[in-house]
From TrEMBL:
Molecular function, one GO term: oxidoreductase activity, acting on the CH-OH group of donors, NAD or NADP as acceptor
Transmembrane segments: none
Taxonomic source organism: Lishizhenia tianjinensis
Keywords, comma-separated and alphabetical: NAD, Oxidoreductase
Name under which the protein is recorded: D-3-phosphoglycerate dehydrogenase
Residues annotated as domain D-isomer specific 2-hydroxyacid dehydrogenase NAD-binding: 108-297
Coiled-coil residues: none
InterPro entries attached to this UniProt entry: D-iso_2-hydroxyacid_DH_PdxB, D-isomer_2_OHA_DH_cat_dom, D-isomer_DH_CS, D-isomer_DH_NAD-bd, NAD(P)-bd_dom_sf
Family: Belongs to the D-isomer specific 2-hydroxyacid dehydrogenase family.
One Pfam match: 2-Hacid_dh_C
Entry-linked PANTHER family: D-ISOMER SPECIFIC 2-HYDROXYACID DEHYDROGENASE CATALYTIC DOMAIN-CONTAINING PROTEIN-RELATED, D-ISOMER SPECIFIC 2-HYDROXYACID DEHYDROGENASE FAMILY PROTEIN (AFU_ORTHOLOGUE AFUA_1G13630)
Domain D-isomer specific 2-hydroxyacid dehydrogenase catalytic stretches: 7-315
Keyword Oxidoreductase attached: yes
Amino acid sequence: MMKILANDGISAEGKEALEKAGHTVSTETIEQDKLIEVINNENYEALIVRSATVVRENLIDACPNLKFIGRGGVGMDNIDVEYARNKGIIVSNTPAASSQSVAELVMGHLFSISRSLHDSFKNMPANGANDFKVLKKKYGKGVELRGKTLGIIGFGRIGQSLASYALGCGMKVIAVSREEESVSIPLTIEGVGRIEAEVKTTTDISAMLAASDFISLHVPKQKDGSAVLGASEFDKMKDGVRIVNAARGGVIDEDALLAAIESGKVANVALDVFENEPNPRQDLLTNDKIATTPHIGAATVEAQARIGLELADIIVSNFGSK
């Protein structure tokens, strides 16, 4: 049986499942600079992380007893995955567990930035009693989602889950992926049952940018560090486009984004992720055209339970139970 360090935590359901299988689980958070020492001194064989803990080559080399590295979530850019696997370490994430929660956050942001709810929520408590008519005029030029085109960049599990919600709201979906394919999107409607909608993906991101009223990104951080949306991509978009990024910081060039907002090319933006987490730049946080959340895409009670149980299943299937 294994000693497991869940350094960024694990759900009670996941911890219980692992302990029931005979494994030992610690949820103590160890600072990054102390992690190697603690893993070796406590003889941890498995390390579970989310986005806060970084697992690079130096840690992998310094901790020869590690047999498993688990990422509670989708993106694994905080782990040197191939290097670890070449060392014989099993590395796994939980791609299915948080898709719905991220998609729902994006939908919340889409509704928010289409009606400037994020800014209204800030100003009404402070100024609503005295400037009600002024604020009513300021926020009275919103747009509707139904009938609009949503461009989704990256059409994996999260992109497809988002498409199901958007289609249910009456939006048109243009999905960009590496290959052109036809994807069946299930929609479950209470009282009706499950129906299927077909989305044909495209590799032509330029055409999608030109056609979309809203854009949402669902791609990993690029290996070369380049942005998926930069100045040239903003130039191709409709005037007044609205954008959501709940993928990774760095997939949008933040300087180019601010310039596009200033010029009016971009009407509103929602950001759940930032280049410099956990210290995002202040001019993003205070811009009244930008809605912000602190990287909470997968942070629902239901998603965390699913993530913990999925990690437990992976560990038990690979390393057994008592």
